[in-house]
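Structure ticket #2291
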Amino acid sequence: MEKDALEVRVTELETVLTFQEQAISSLSDELFVQQEKLKDMDRTLKAVVKSYRENLPQALPEDEVPPHY
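Resolution: structure written out below.
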């Protein structure tokens, strides 16, 4: 009887291990997808910031307020 209980326990542990391996694989795949999306968003943000900085109106000297003494 003890041998049967041990076999049942080993089978249960193998089942849990298989589930955990599948869960880890699924999470790893999703993490990869999220990292790629984050990289894409980072590139987009950098392009927007660069475009914004390039298109800022340049202050003309006559528009600047002279310092007050």
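Closing remark: The mean pLDDT is 91.
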